[in-house]
Write the structure tokens for this entry.
Amino acid sequence: MSKINKLLKKLGPGLLFAGAAIGVSHLVQSTRAGAEFGMGLLWALILVNIFKYPFFQYGPRYASATGESLLDGYYKLGKGILIAYAIITIATMFTIQTAVTIVTAGLAASLTNGLFSTEVWTIIIIAICSVVLFFGKYKLLDRLIKYVIILLAISTILATLMAFNNNTNEIILSQFLPEITVEIAFLIAFMGWMPAPLDVSVWHSLWSLEKQKTNKNFTYKSSLFDFNVGYIGTVILGVAFMSLGYLVMFGGDTSFSTSASLFSNQLIEMYTSSLGEWSYYIIGIAAFTTMLSTTITTLDASPRAMNRTTKLLINKDFKHGYLFWLAILSVGTIFIFFLFSSKMGLLVKIATILSFLTAPFYAIINYILISSEHTPKEYRPSIKLHILSILGIAFLIGFSIWFLVKGI
């Protein structure tokens, strides 16, 4: 037990990354991919995780190598780059936050048998998360997320294994490339948040710096180990969620609803059909706590990033800058939610597609920064990472152009 505790103490930002990633991309997009396309988009899940890997890794790599966040690095590359980051973040952070919060609220409504409406749950969840972040800050977030991720990982893997055991049909692994507009749009949305939006690399660098403040033994080597644990875990669970959607819903008469509360019921029932009705609340709580972890990590990260961005751009430190941006994001999320409360599917689609279309920006800037003079030579990428980075940039740009030509 002591060895497990020691291992958990070494982990932090990587599991926060997993907490931010294993949300809409897994519970919503991956299960929907399996339910609607079987295992036909497994190639996309694997490729996008491979090609996004270096750009996510450059977050903790740069932070450990320099003691600065990626935002500081962006500023060194040019003030215009940081301004571009601020514009993209302001344009996307409200939609992203609303998309993850609406799913969390839907799960809460399902678990409480409609005690409160999804709208009321949204306000309650945003309020609770804001209070937790105000008083607990990074330390509480770091402790909380570890147990949430472990609970979800165990329940998801167990449900997947039992679904395979109960399956009596032939497993079909044939792959395909979508051709019609609606399928192309889904593919881009699916890859947009698989395993997470690329701006999470910025968040990861900020979390790494916070971890260093609380744990002096959090070195460059341990930060990369921490990142790899979180990243590989998200990939494995992505495959598991797709498999669940395929084994339980593919080829059936039902499809996932775009309503948050109805979708949440379908999601939980997908688990219980594999594990049994006894697991309803166990799985429901696991799914809810996972989405809650995504909600709270994104609610922490965007204000943290915007606070640092503002400080760098105007060269002035605001005492309550983080709280200011936290309040702005909370109010903005609730406002957007009430505009799109009945259109969860549309909201998720918009957020995920925007994330994919902005991914080349983060990929290129992260690669330039980690390869530049601003990163100590011994911490720059290996030849293999250079090659993977170039291929990854080509992959992201290529699919973005393909979507703009074919998918609109």
Summary: The chain has one domain: 2-407. Residues 111 and 281 are 7 Å apart (CA to CA). The domain at 2-407 is CATH 1.20.1740.10 (Amino acid/polyamine transporter I). The first helix runs from residue 2 to 10.
